[in-house]
Write a structure and sequence with these properties.
325 residues, alpha/beta, Rossmann fold, five-stranded parallel beta sheet, globular, DUF4886 domain-containing protein, SGNH_hydro_sf, DUF4886
Amino acid sequence: MHSTSGVAWLRKSVAIFVLFLLVFTGKTAFSQAGPPAVPGQKNEKPLHLFIIGNSFSGNAARYLPKLSKEGGHTLVIGRAELGGCSLQRHWELVEAAEANPDDPKGKAYNGKSLKMLLSDGVWDVVTLQQYSMLSGDVETYRPYAQKLYDYIKKLQPSARVVFHQTWAYRADADGFGKVAGKTMAQSEKEMWEKSRAAYHTIARELGVAVMPVGDAFWRISSDPKWGFRKDTGFEAASAQAPDLPNQAHSLHVGYRWNKTKLEFDSHHASNAGCYLGGLVWYGFLFSESPVDLTFLPEGVPADFAAQLRKTAWQTVRAVRKGVAK
């Protein structure tokens, strides 16, 4: 009897001990893993992205926060952007700030220098780009791309530096970017070809990757079905508000009325162009297809948006494989 009671007591003690271990280890595992993920939010560290550019980077990254949020990615963005700013200009601002940190000339980014902005935290990715008008002339990148790269790595040694490949102007532009000295590109295609070659040449020299927004623009522009085609029946000189040409599938702003004045912008991205740029950035930065994302900017038809998502991911994958088109 005494032996049976002892065995029962031992079994009960073991059961209590095992239960204690299960509870303890369960709590320990939970504390290490952290709280459950928020629905739609991926269990990953935030991506800290710093953009050195101009209005074109502003266009390309316009919808990136919304796309990232939908995709479940936490994104922190820092910016050093000035309208029409070239690599040379960005570097000259660095030199001014380094020569005299108190000189306002070096604090062109809303009262701050590039050093001040880059030193504010730790950045995972830093992007660079050339001014679009100069993007087809490889000599305009030298030596400023290298100097900026070295400066970035000095301040942020663990950051990945990436080139943002800008896009060519719309097919009906009244002029295109420089390709060599004073020689200008003669078409959207030539501007894309020359700027692409320049970006990739400098990227190879620096050992960095290229974010192929310009390639994605050209894939759409040159597509027989989805590319923009000039409305030959529209006469800008005699147009009356609010008449506009057919600008279906335009990735550029194009014609628009400012009260009674007809304006034409063949350089900057339209809502569709900004969307395409953001999709390329998304696919490149997160190594993830944006095809199933549902966010849609105002004025972009659903079928066209679906093609833009598909094209963005095809372009990112193609560049990784070393394919031009």
